[in-house]
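dude i think i finally got it to work??
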Amino acid sequence: SIGASIGTHPTLDRPQSRTMSDNAARLQAMQDAVTDAGNNVRALKAEKKDKAEIDAAIAKLKELKLELDTEIKAAMAAGDEAAAAKEQFRSKMNGALEQRLFYIPSFKIYGGVAGLYDYGPPGCAVKSNLQAFWRQHFVLNEAMLEVECPSVTPEVVLKASGHVEKFTDLMVNDVVTKDCFRADHLVEENLERMLADPMISADKRGELEDMLARLEEFTPEEMGDAITKLAIKAPETKNDLTAPYPFNLMFPTQIGPSGALQGYLRPETAQGIFVNFRDLLYYNGGKLPFAAAQIGQSFRNEIAPRAGLLRVREFTQAEIEHFVHPEQKDHSRFGEVADVMLSLFSRDAQLGAVKKPFPMTIGEAVEKGIVANQTLGYFIARTQTFLEKIGVNPERLRFRQHLQHEMAHYAEDCWDAEIECSYGWIECVGLADRSAFDLKAHSDKSKVELTAYERFAEPKMVETLVVEPNKKDMGKAFKKDAKAVTDALMALCQEDALALAAKVEADGKAELKIEGGSVEILPGMVKIAMETQKVSGRNFTPSVIEPSFGIGRIMYCMFEHSFYIRPEDEQKTVFRFSPIIAPIKCTIFPLVNDAGMNDLAGTISRVLATEGISSKLDTTAVSVGKRYARTDELGVPFAVTVDHRSLQDNTVTIRERDSCDQVRVAVDDVLPLIKKLCNLQATWNEATAGLEKQAAASD
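look at this
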């Protein structure tokens, strides 16, 4: 049965048996033995050896062939069984999620729209609790500055960030039906299908695994070559496909009734933080480092939305932009996380022969240069802790480093927190050292300086660029455009300013681009030179470390890691949610529909609500066992039952969801006990040690 125990499902658990590549190596060795045995038979016949010796060699060959055939069939059956188990597991879990209204397709009565989902009451509660814990774990713990910015973004902002030009996926079309497909998904699916063949040779397997590892960095030409090499056709029609081409994933819109101002629904929340950097720095007293955070909706017009919450067109992001001096990326609290053990899938490990992650503390990873710096390492470790606390199985969590060509040219280092689920390894958190690219890009486009000031311990003599426009000559030459020309000169970087001065000196004039056109700069209009000056500080553009969390993806993986079926009854599905994430913390049941029991149950419910602990009062007439099962499906961790004894001695029972253990406590002790358990201040066994054990109610 699926979920045969409270632990992870056996067919979905990672270290269950030999890996696919181990099986392939073993089968290849058996195939080699068959080949050798066949060669031996041919050699014996050629040498006209004794018939008995030849017959023995033939018998050995048949035996080896039979063993190989049996192993091949077993390997293929195991692959089919594992795939079927994953589908069955997903179907069972998704059925429970939809039935209990965690989330459902949007606009269902009109047939729905791919990639859009509505969250029902328990889904909203889980999402709200997840976001609240994210705020507590990161924003409050790190004293971050939280902002909220609009979803509609002017085009100029996204031009500066590079999204208008480069925020694309490679798409192909069916040449006949014109249906659209995401190219890398087609290639990935075909590669995984080929790798599932137990008889694939070791060399071929290595080639395909290398292609799969590098898939995300393919150019359109390389993707086209892969489609041709693998003979990939349109999935349904088997028609030929067009050459891959880039498709921009942003939703365009017009701002205002005239349509003159082009905009987009934001593809990420980060840009709102970058454009507000100057005000946030001022709010923070001009001090670095500091971090700003935002939780909000983002929008991506996915080519082929699939896999439920894993690839959607509107989703919630929680992003942090940690601004830091580019030469001072140590973190003051790194010592707190240095011993956190991670599963790291470094660049070298991905491109090596084995292609497996390895365990290492973040302290050692930073010390060895595997992770670029302490600040990035700090957030990687904090992300590990966050994901574990919300219920992600650490054995199915790894941090994968971006390959060199996956990273933008300006990035220092990038890692993804990937969580394994029935769809494979899913990127749920991106953690990147983006250097100073974003602030520089917006500064260049907006002509607004987005820098911080660094005061030196002692004044220094430094060579400084001096740009001094001759206001009189400029005014005569450019009249109303004089200010625009002056602004353009002052905005020049050192390299461009010196190049302009050299051009004027050599040719007697130089072209300068200004907003709306260009002008000629003549000798005497501006002084541009490097001068040695005594300075007490300097302006610099900070680097940014960016952790970016996909809330929906994390939720889906958490749902899979939490879901199981009680071994004694396959109809009883359970979500093993952490108390901090559970949609309802506690249910309260009167044993029977009795006025006294109902009153006491209502009092307990109100006390819990006053302290911010969500509870559900269930006074229906069904058996308490059925009510337990009903709330187990919602992942409610604790249940309080008011029974006949409660009316006599003012005590109630409290049940824990996964163990089904029950203890008896005084009514006045219900709130402190539930509070302690929900805040993870104690485990169930620790919190209930010494309390009276109660026999479980029959279901």
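The first strand starts at residue 103 and ends at 105.
im so relieved honestly
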